[in-house]
Amino acid sequence: MKNLKRAAAILGIIILLAVCCLPMIFAFGSGEGSEGMFRASIGIVIIVPVLAYAFWMVFGLLNKKNKETKSSMKNIIFDVGQVLVKFDWEGYLKSFGFPEEEYRAMAENIFLSPLWNERDRGELTEEEYIRRFQEAVPQYKEDVRKVLENTAKTIFTLDYAETWTKYLKSQGYHLFILSNYCEYTLEQTRPMMTFLKYMDGIVFSCKVKQIKPEPDIYKTLLTEYNLNPEESVFLDDREENCQTARSLGIHAICFKNFKQAAAELEKLGVK
Fold first, then answer.
1. Would you list the DSSP string of 176-230?
2. How do 232-236 and 75-78 pair as beta strands?
3. What is the three-class DSSP state of 11?
4. pLDDT tens across 32-87, in order?
């Protein structure tokens, strides 16, 4: 197909060059009717490029339309953590240099605790969440506060995030965010999430007081932006979150890495 397009382009250039040479050929004619042929050749020089340009424009529009209708997917819904940003709580916690026993206690009672997910719901103040975390490990009360006050340092935007979302947007897809995210960390990290400008809609858990994998937050997104589940695909790094999406009729891809996710999207016709 590429060779055919290249050959057609070369042939078109040759024809245009030949057409442009016609006035020069007829300009030196001396026979009867040569003046008429010269004027006709001038007209051809003007008309042919105009027609070629019009054809090129129509072809481009039709090609774009074909691209838009290749996939039944119209909406791409992204989780944020581990999909568009890296969430490295382990590296962050190690940076404090805590003794091994304290490190394990902090990991289990902060980042791996059910309260960590509830913090994303945002029903309490940040100070109240800190107090509850401290109650779980009272012997490390001050260190708990230090860790929680700088959790924005666990977040790093992935290098492909903006390029990927920008490309998908340019292809005509509608992009959305559906993410568990705590209010305190969101305020500090939102400026670095430059990919948000390509989103048609955003639902952060802390704003709606709902969290994944509970169905309500998915329904909030679908209702708020009037999305058809059958025309939507959801990318999340947690299988339980993907299962809820599927139960609501949304296509879902359990994200492992960019290359894998792009390949899975392509199977759905998203290119």
1. EEEE---HHHHHHHGGG-GGGGG-SEEEEHHHHT--TTSHHHHHHHHHHTT--GG
2. parallel
3. helix
4. 655 665 565 565 656 656 666 665 665 566 555 544 446 799 999 999 999 999 99
And the tokens for 168?
């998908």
CA–CA separation, 151 and 188 (whole Å): 9
Run of H or E residues at 151: none
Amino acid code (one letter) for 270: V
Tell me which DSSP letter residue 251 carries: E
The CA angle 183-186-188, to the nearest 5 degrees, is 115
* Surface-to-core class of residue 145, CB atoms within 10 Å of its CB (0-12 exposed, 13-18 middle, 19+ buried): middle
Phi, psi of 193 (to 5 degrees): -90, 70
pTM beyond 0.85: no
Q: Facing residues of 251 across strands?
A: 233
Q: Find out whether the peptide bond into 49 is cis, omega within 30 degrees of 0.
A: no
Neighbours of 36 (CB within 10 A): 11
In angstroms, the Cα distances linking 223 to 203, 217, 219, 228, 252 are: 11, 10, 6, 9, 18
DSSP SS3 for 49:
helix
CA distances from 163 to 31, 76, 156, 197 (A): 63, 15, 15, 12
Alpha helices in the chain (DSSP H): 2-27, 34-69, 89-94, 100-106, 114-121, 126-136, 141-149, 161-170, 183-189, 205-208, 215-224, 239-247, 258-267
